[in-house]
Design goal:
The structure is a single chain. Helix content is about 70%, strand content about 0%. It is mainly alpha-helical and about 350 residues long. It is globular, with a radius of gyration of 22 Å.
Length: about 350
């Protein structure tokens, strides 16, 4: 679909938050550490250079191959990513530890990206054989099984929920997986069950999220208004989107701008602000929001913001600038099929 704006980043990888380098004491793998910093900054080519130096300097093979795999994932070079992760696993000493599980999670994601769903499932099977109560592995295996086997996927989701009855973030992720595969009503049943359980541990933000995905925007608004005071940007983003769903774009804009008065470092909020401005045909203001977001260092919304900037130039009728930007965009994100269609359109203008 031409002129499709972007709400979230295209590439979503598992960032498990495990710290394996630079965690206290003298850093014995300096190039790996620098490479991982570049990965976090989304500078994948620089990261690969650091990992190559780490290899030459004899640094930890598991860590550097893992880093290479992450960098190749960021570049959407999935075959090379799989090879790197497999090398990382092969560089172990035979004793399974947290790093091996971490690498396997990434490897399963890469197999999925390569269309090798069964290999991804087999990887999760191996994890669960050693960690039979790993809720994350059940959830992720379920997401892959949704491709071909709904009943077994749902069994995995049910098992994940049974292992973490009050992990509402996991529950919402399960809903999102089901919704993305056309099982929205089934996903909503999970949310309704959780809301009806009257569990005291559920926060206002979690309740607001569930009501949002149930499309009960009045209740979502009520709980998210309470949550915004102490939950930060995530509650603000969802509250703003709730008002967008209610058709009140002016109030949504006020939610975003109020937040940005105190914190100018959140690229996601600038992106939502820009999308609201686009909706209201305030194209110059939308462009300013997207470009301001782009200027935030080390943000994980760069691809989304760059794409939305291109669409905004189109809306402004500046097809020359849009065409120039989309050329460099596709150099960075060559697998974006929507952008490829946009490029074809722009060549005809």
């Amino acid at each position: 679909m031409r002129n499709k704006i972007r709400e979230t980043a295209l590439l979503a990888v598992l960032l498990l938050g495990l710290c394996f380098t630079g965690c206290g004491g003298r850093d014995t793998n300096p190039s790996v550490t620098e490479g991982m910093a570049a990965v976090e900054a989304l500078d994948y080519q620089t990261a690969l250079q650091h990992f190559e130096k780490a290899l030459m300097d004899g640094e930890d093979l598991r860590l550097l191959y893992r880093g290479q795999g992450l960098a190749y994932m960021g570049l959407t070079r999935y075959e090379e990513a799989a090879e790197a992760f497999e090398k990382a696993l092969g560089a172990g000493n035979g004793r399974i530890d947290d790093l091996d599980y971490d690498i396997n999670y990434y490897l399963a994601t890469v197999y999925y990206k390569l269309g090798e769903t069964e290999r991804g499932i087999a990887t999760y099977n191996a994890i669960l054989a050693l960690r039979p109560k790993d809720k994350l592995a059940y959830y992720l295996r379920g997401t892959l099984r949704l491709e071909t086997d709904y009943e077994r996927a749902k069994a995995d989701f049910d098992q994940a929920i049974s292992l973490a009855k009050e992990d509402y973030d996991l529950l919402i992720n399960i809903y999102l997986a089901l919704e993305s595969r056309g099982y929205k009503e089934i996903g909503q049943e999970y949310l309704q069950t959780a809301l009806g359980s009257d569990v005291k541990s559920m926060t206002d933000y979690q309740r607001g999220r569930m009501y949002y995905y149930l499309e009960d925007y009045e209740n979502a608004r009520k709980y998210l208004e309470m949550a915004r005071k102490h939950e930060g940007s995530e509650a603000v983003l969802l509250l703003g989107r709730t008002y967008e769903e209610l058709g009140d774009f002016n109030y949504a804009i006020s939610v975003y701008t109020s937040y940005l008065e105190n914190d100018q470092t959140n690229a996601s909020v600038y992106n939502r602000l820009g999308l609201c401005k686009l909706e209201m045909k305030a194209y110059e203001e939308a462009l300013t929001a997207f470009q301001t977001g782009k200027g935030i260092e080390n943000n994980d919304m760069m691809q989304t913001l760059r794409f939305n900037e291109i669409i905004t130039y189109e809306r402004l009728g500046d097809y020359k600038q849009a065409a120039s930007l989309i050329g460099s965009y596709l150099s960075a994100y060559p697998d974006d099929e929507t952008a490829q269609r946009e490029y074809i359109f722009l060549k005809t203008r």
